[in-house]
Protein: TIGR03089 family protein
Amino acid sequence: MNRTGPGTPADLLAATLRRDSAAPLITHYDDATGERVELSATTLANWVAKTANLLQDEFDVGRGRTVAVVLPVHWQTAAVLLAVWSCGAAVLDTAVEDEGGVAQADVVLAAQDRLEALAELDVPDLLGLSLHPLGLGMAGYTGPARDFALEVRTQGDVFVPYEQPDPSSPGLLVGRLELDLGGLVSTARQLADRLGLVAGDRVLVDERSAAEAGPVAWLLAPLSAGASLVLCRNADEERLGHRADTERVTATLGRGIEGVRELGKPA
Structure:
């Protein structure tokens, strides 16, 4: 971590790699498809590097650029967010934007089911993600978006930014709120303390809670605290208690599960 300041989100991932590169960092479920994908810090960092190389080399993403992320809670979303920040660019969080808001971005990464609506707008460079559990491309898609899965697989496994991320550069745009890259880290640490996150926590987060809380809460705060994540998309309420048990969940964000502490709530 940068000793003269808070550093950037890329430093949080680097610290996680140094701490324990092989342990599960993100476990992702989609109850609509039966998907379960588990990534260690090493595997996530590899996806981040490949994605950052794609964004930097093919789309000129770097300091002063803005990338709209139109994606649900997903392990690939975590990789995309960290890749944008590794390039030193800003994320436009579309959770609180209508689809027209992406027009102010330089590049848009969107889930396949959002591409048709986005293609009707005057959008910049557009990348589509199938969100397939095995990282496959977009089946049946014939529109203008480039296929993230096909583009990213040929990218290098090591990322070196043309310019090192500047903590004072814009990092996240949410409505009228703007946080710089250093502010993302400072806010994540403060939020982790306020929520009671501790090293070794395993935090369950569902899609609704992640969208409401934003990426600082569901991604960066756990990273800053040394916690790991269990992400649940299309969550089946009847399965969550059993899942929390089998995944050894110690805390939840934005929802209650009997016998598991809810972050930010009194014990």
User: Anything to note?
Assistant: Residues 24 and 40 are 4 Å apart (CA to CA). The chain has a mean pLDDT of 92.
